[in-house]
Structures are given as C-alpha cells and as structure tokens.
Sequence to fold (271 residues):
Amino acid sequence: MHLLLFWLFTLIMVGFGIAVIANRNPVASALCLVVSFVGLAALYISLDAFFIGTIQILVYAGAVMVLFLFIIMLLDLRAEERRPVNWFVFAGGGALALTLLFQISYVIGRTRGAHAAFPPLTVPTDDVRNIGALLFSQFNLPFQVIGVLIFVATIGVIILSKRELR
Amino acid sequence: MITLGHYLGASAVLFAVGFAGVMLRRNIIIIFMSLELMLNAASLSLVAFSRSRVASGLPNYNAQVFVFFIITVAAAEVAVGLAIIVALFRARRTTHVEDISAMKF
Fold:
C-alpha cells in the first residue's frame, strides 16, 4: 500500500512538473506547479517529515505561488506567440537534460545503502519540537542570519520596484 | 519494498525536468519556475537521506533544518527574482529571453 502511494505521488509530482514546462500559458504552468508541490509535500509526509511537508504547502503552494500568479497577471502575459523553434538548440538542451538524468541514476545505483529499506522509527516522531530545539540551540546563528537576509530582501524588493529603470 | 533509491530516483527525475525547463523554455517566468523545481528536487533528496540515517529511533533532523533554511532562502529568492523580472518588463516590455541579450540598460 505504501509503495502504491509512493508511485501515485511521484507520478503526480513528475507529471505536473512536466506539464509546467510543456504548457504555453504561464497561468496554467503556475497552477501545475502548485499541484506538483502538493505531490512533493505528500512525499515529504511519507518520509515522516510532517513539519517540512506542512511548510512546503504553506510557503510554496501558498505564498510563493500567489506571488507568481500576481506577477503573471500584473504583467498581463498572454500565451506566448509561437516563434520558430531552433531544433538544434532544442535537441541539445533535451540531450543535456537526459545525460544529467542518466548520470544521476548511475551515481544512485552505485551509492551504498540506496537499496536498503528505511530503518524503522522506534520513538514517536515529534518533529516540530525537535527541529525547533535544533533551530534555537545548534543552528541559532544561521537562523538569525536568515532573519537579516529576509529583511534585506524585503528592502531590496521595495527599492527595485520603486526605481524607474531607464 | 520501498528504498532510499526510490526517493533519490524521484528526486533525480524532478531535477532533470527542471533542468530541461531551464534549457528548453524561453519565457523567463517559466525558467524561474523550473529553477524552483530543481531546488525542490534537492530538498527531496535531503529529506530522504534524513529518514535513512536513523539515530536512536529518530531521523537525522539536521537535514530537515537544512531544508527549512532552503525553503526560507527560496522564498526570499522568489521575491527578489520576481521584482527583477517586473523591473525588466517595465524597461523592455518583454519576458522572452532572446529579446534580452544586453546586460546594460
């Protein structure tokens, strides 16, 4: 049953991921990306990472995708007009992506422990508490640096959108 | 039986899809979405490794904290990137990468 769910969610994630890059209409691409991220969040939850799965839905499927949709509608992009495709470049890019896929699968096939089942969890996973404890003890400095980063990003976005580029 | 390799394979396929999107598409917003796909593929493999390295009955939470940081930085990156795209669109009236070939404004 678990295997069935794994294949279902992987199919959703990869299928809608392909739909993102196959769609001509940017709004349809953005909506496919939301579904792909929901499938990914389900995979996180199947790995007992409940907190990360929830954050994935809240931040990506919620905040980030609303931002994408806002920008697409703000720029008023129609489905892009068909331009002549440079088939040489198209074949080259596709071959590069396939080569990358084969290379990664080769490395995974040779990785030690890639063919072993996941060891069982004996303690109930209280992952929000555990991640929170790590964030405020061992990773406290990076956590605060992230706060500064988001602050700077906010100011940068405001300045970028106020200034007139000539 | 479900193994670490299954999840790593799913992550590899998602990464390749994102990479193909960056290579093949010419709309800058779609390229940006494909970048997000690649970022999430890397996060998936991190979470899978976290689940496979079990210590005293619990997954290794260091990787999940790392994914938390990745998601935070990605949210900031999307905001800045989209602001740059809006500024670019205001100056050039296009989101097609072939029309944007000069670094200088």
